[in-house]
Each structure stands twice: as structure tokens, then as C-alpha cells.
Amino acid sequence: MALSATLYKAHLTVNNFDTNEFGTYELTVARHPSETEARLMLRLIAFANYAHDRLEFTRGLCVSEEPELWQKDDTGHPQRWIELGLPEFKRLKQRSSKATQLVVFAYGDQNAQNWREQNQSSWAKLDNLSVTYIETADLQSAAQRCQRRMELHVSIQDGLFELTAFGDTQSGEPINIRLEKWK
């Protein structure tokens, strides 16, 4: 019997002073059986970083032709295409032509550093590509705040990303997450 996805509910408040995006979002996120809580939290971090009423989670791991998140315009054309992990350049090149903006959230310390060294010169060919790196320690710290029902507050100012999680077992202690721009 196949394992089914686990649903997580997040009440997300975003105050992004860098882009003047402020909002509250009620999110339901399905965690694939093979997905870790750290990766689920990365999806929420990516959402918070690009928060918009039209930004939505896709079927992600279940459908390789879709990103983790996308934001479409009125015609259905993807304005923003957000991938997680260390995608091959061939995939990025294909996706680059499908969206106005292509975003990658890379993670994985040494693997990510190697991936960067191997691909950074090719990234210059993709004008609409933005690559952001998050350290494993920051991702693990965020994962410790993961619960089936979460109240998350994100504040972004001057490039600093602060996450505060509230819940039954959370004290509300904020953590600073370093989102390093690679391109």
C-alpha cells in the first residue's frame, strides 16, 4: 500500500520591508512521504520570501514538469517559477523559457557548493534566473519549528530573514535565516 501525503496547515504572516509585501496567508501544504520536514519548511520559506496572492504550491515532487511553487498571470503564464534543490542546468534552461522569473532555493552545504562551482558560469546565460542558498543549519533550525498546525511570522528587512513560529511546543523565539544570493 502506498503511503499518502501528510497535510500541514500554516497561518503565515509576512512583513517584507524590502519589497513592501505585507500579508497573511492560510496555507495547506502536503508533505510527500519521501519529503523531510526541513524541505517542507524550505517550501514555506520560499513562499514567504516571494509572498503574493497568486503564489501557490504545486504538486511538486509528484509531477516533475512542475516547480515547487509558481505564480501565474491572468492568462495562466507562469510569472515566477520556484524550484528547490540542485537542479541540472538543462532543467533550468528549459524552465527559464517557461517563466518570466526562475528562482532556485539551493540547500545541502557541500553538495550545493559543488553544484554552484559546476554551474555558475552557465547561469549567466539565463537572464531571468535567481539562485538563493540556505545553509543546512538554518534549515534544520526551521524544521525544529515544524508542526502539523503552525503560526509563522516572517519579517524580511535589508536582506535579513527572521522566522518566528508559534504553537503548542514553541516559545516564539525568532531565528535568523541567512538567505545567500548566488546570482
Say which CATH homologous superfamily is assigned.
Restriction endonuclease-like alpha-beta roll domain
Number of E-type strands: 12
- Can you tell me the overall shape? globular
Please identify the structural class as seen in this structure: alpha+beta
**First CA to last CA: what distance?**
43 Å
What is the count of DSSP helices, taking H or I runs of 4+ residues?
4
Strand content: 35-45%
Outline the low-pLDDT stretches.
none
For the largest beta-sheet, the strand count, sense and barrel status come to: 6 strands, mixed
Class in CATH?
Alpha Beta
Q: Mean of the pLDDT scores?
A: 91
Radius of gyration: 16 Å
Q: In percent, how helical is the residue content? A: 10-25%
Briefly note the CATH topology name: Restriction endonuclease-like alpha-beta roll fold
* Assembly type: single chain
Number of domains: 1
What is the secondary structure topology, with strand pairs?
Elements: E1 6-16, E2 21-31, H1 37-49, E3 55-57, E4 69-72, E5 78-84, H2 89-96, E6 101-107, H3 109-123, E7 129-134, H4 136-143, E8 149-157, E9 160-167, E10 170-171, E11 175-177, E12 179-181
Helix pairs in contact: 1-4
State the main characteristics.
single chain; 183 residues; alpha+beta; Restriction endonuclease-like alpha-beta roll fold; 6-stranded mixed sheet; 4 helices; 12 strands; YaeQ; Restrct_endonuc-II-like; YaeQ_sf
